[in-house]
Structures are given as structure tokens and as C-alpha cells.
Predict the 3D structure of the following.
Amino acid sequence: MQHFRALGAVLLIGSFAVILLVTGPSPAQITKGKSRPLQTKHLMRGLTKVHCGALKKGLDAGPSSAEQWEELMVHAALLNELSFILMEDGRCPDGTWANAATKMLRPGSADVIAAIEAKNLGDANKAFASMTKACGTCHKAHKDKKKADL
């Protein structure tokens, strides 16, 4: 009899594990980290949108002074830092998110930084275009599904 109870407990635990694997992570992992109060939509609006927009505007205008190049560097560096923040505190829900953050946004923004350091506007624009593909990849998988939350 105890053997059947143990088997039942194993089956119950296994069923919960399967349900979690099939349904995926909770939406809270997409809309907010596990322990920090910052919501993903606020991260996107307060950091991503601001710095990506300013970087694009600055690259489109073409920096002509050391101060303007430095301003572009600030925006690119903060976008690079974002690639780390997106992976922390259980915020990352899946491989699409992880790939966009670590294999697209991180190296793409590092390439923008390198081009800015070299004061090479052409390379900076190419790297920026490559970097922003991370946004589209992640938004396609997550934003449309959770439009109100992101």
C-alpha cells in the first residue's frame, strides 16, 4: 500500500512538472523580475526607448564634436548594460529572449560602442541596425502576446 502512495506522489509531482514545462514560465517573469519592482514595460520606456531613440537621432544627425560622440557613447553603453539587466532577476522567460539579449543586443551594442570610439559613423550606423534586430526578435515573440503588459 505504501508503495502505491509513493508512486502516486511521484506521479502527482511529475504531472505538475509537465504542466509547468508545457505552460512555460509565469507571465510575471516576462512583465517583471522576481524580486525587483521594475516592470519590463517601464524598463523599455525609461531606458530602451529613450536611449535607442537618442542614439538613432544622434547617428542620423552625424556627430560633429567630441561632446556629441560622448553623448552617443552614453546611449550605446546603457543599451549594452540593458542586455545584462534583461537576463537578471528571472526576467528572461525563454531562449528567444535570451538569444536577443545576449547574442544580438549585447554584441550589437558593443559594436556600436567600438564604432563610436573609432568615430566611424558608417560602422556605427551598420552596428545600430544590427543591434536593433534584437528588439524586433524579442518583441515578435513577446510584445504582441502581452501588449498591455510590455
Q: What stands out?
A: The chain has one domain: 29-143. The longest helix spans residues 95-117.
